[in-house]
Amino acid sequence: MSNFLKEFKEFALRGNVLDLAVGVIIGGAFQGVVNSLVQDIISPIIGLFANQDFSNLVITLGGVQVKYGSFITALINFIIMAFVIFLIVKGMNKLASLGKHEEVAATEEPTTKVCPYCCSEIPISATRCPNCTSELE
Asked: Is the separation of the CB atoms in 112 and 136 below 8 Å?
């Protein structure tokens, strides 16, 4: 039993698990902000065109209410959340790429060559290898 608890403790206190927990908590708080934006600002503005609260739009079919306004509100929530997450990931990728240097050597002309006899690196303009003294073409 103590081995099981030790393994669980190692799992729960791993960096990735803590990062995931923080992300879920921040995501839940952000979802509340987006829900408020859509329900309190965007839906009423769209509702101006329908002359009622947009999230309360309903169609009754055979005695059953189809709440399409609520579905469209949820769809708007999803689109906003997906767009913001896209922007965050794009920004993080850009920040990560700033630290990496692109290989410039591939675009520059070589300044050295390899001696075919002793395989040492020599200046490209050399006509004789300084290591093995072989004549180069």
From this structure: no
Count of domains forming the chain: 2
What is the extent of the structural domain holding 118? Answer: 105-137
Does residue 131 sit in the same domain as residue 70? no
Exposure string (b/e) for 54-88, b if CB count within 10 Å is 16 or more? bbebeeeeeeeeeeebbebbeebbeebbeeeeeee
Cα angle, residue 63 at apex, residues 61 and 68 outer, rounded to 5° = 45
Beta-carbon neighbour count of residue 38 at 10 Å?
24
In contact, 39 and 55? CB cutoff 8 Å: yes
Which amino acid, residue 2?
S
In this predicted model, what pLDDT tens digit does every residue of 9-51 receive, in sequence order?
A: 777 777 677 777 888 888 888 888 888 888 788 777 877 776 7
Q: How many CB atoms lie within 10 A of CB 42?
A: 17
